[in-house]
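User: Structure please.
Assistant: Input sequence and predicted structure:
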Amino acid sequence: MIEINEIEKSYGSHENKFKVLKGISTKINDGDFVVILGASGSGKSTFLNVVSGLEYPDSGSVKYDSMDITKLSEKDLTAFRRKTVGFIFQQYYLLPNMTVEKNVRMGADLAEKSDYREIIKSVGLEKKLKKYPSELSGGEQQRVSIARALAKKPEVLFLDEPTGALDEHTGRQVLDYVCKLQKEYKFTVVMVTHNLNIAEMANMVIKMNSGKILETYCNEIQKTAYEIGW
């Protein structure tokens, strides 16, 4: 379980200081599929960064079970991220001079995992092992980034607008892979998106605006990537 309690986060200083998160509190259970909704500037990406350990909050706590990651040193926080969480962003951040296999293996090596080939097969890229990112479509590149994130066997997968640069067909395909892999590997999903339809895939939805949580609700039925609108 992830317990977020009274998180505050600001950027800038003095008269230019801007508060982005204003006392955020919520809980995420193991195995949840959580979607965070909000317009640009609502604080959803900053919330994701703080909860995942990419940034420290100004105040408040983020506890993974009993461990408060906001109290960890930079070194220990880096070790925590390597072991516990995976990241997928709108930009793929693949290394252009590395093949599909080497990009994914890099993720596995971070957490000292060795069975990464099964992940590559799970995202349908076993025939693309020796291809370079420039030789792949956008959807294939995003699937490589998914495989790289999951090769380390994270407990929580964080996604920030993972379909933002993809067309509808490819976006549905990528989301379908994420859902199937979550069922297989039992990790928690926390996804930021502005697409209201994707929220229908989640079991828990968090709506944000102006640095606060406006509403949290649960879906009784979770739709698949091919059942939602776009």
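The chain has a mean pLDDT of 91.
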